[in-house]
Design a protein that fits this description.
The structure is a single chain. The protein is mainly α and 133 residues long. The chain is 75% helix and 0% strand. It is globular. It is found in: Cell membrane. Keywords: Cell membrane, Membrane, Transmembrane, Transmembrane helix. The chain crosses the membrane at residues 12-29, 49-66, 73-93, 99-120. Its main location: membrane.
Amino acid sequence: MLSSIHLLQPHLLSLLRFVSSLVLFSYGTQKILHFPAAASVPPMGSLSWIAGLIELTLGFLVLVGFQTRIAAFVLSGLMAFAYFIGHAGKSFYPAQNGGVAAILFCFVFLYLVAAGAGPLSVDALMQRNRDAA
């Protein structure tokens, strides 16, 4: 049983990359494209708006698996920054300060820096093309 689960690891890596970046990408669409409708939209040029622009653009790159390690590195830093700027000052405990998502995103994207995009990605497709040439 464990050997068959081990065979799924590369595909589950791709699934982790896809789902986590899709969720982060949705934060960017809400801040920048106003979809889905948000209770409040950050003013253009504000720190929250710039974060939304990064979430939108780099979230999409990680979503499709293009330049994943670089994009995930920047997103991991963005999420660490978001935690310390927006959440850590409210309380020490993430469950109380609302920073659970920021911490999880930070470490998932940090893992993707090391692990890469997985087999179901533009990066993997480009690598297969280079290897075939």
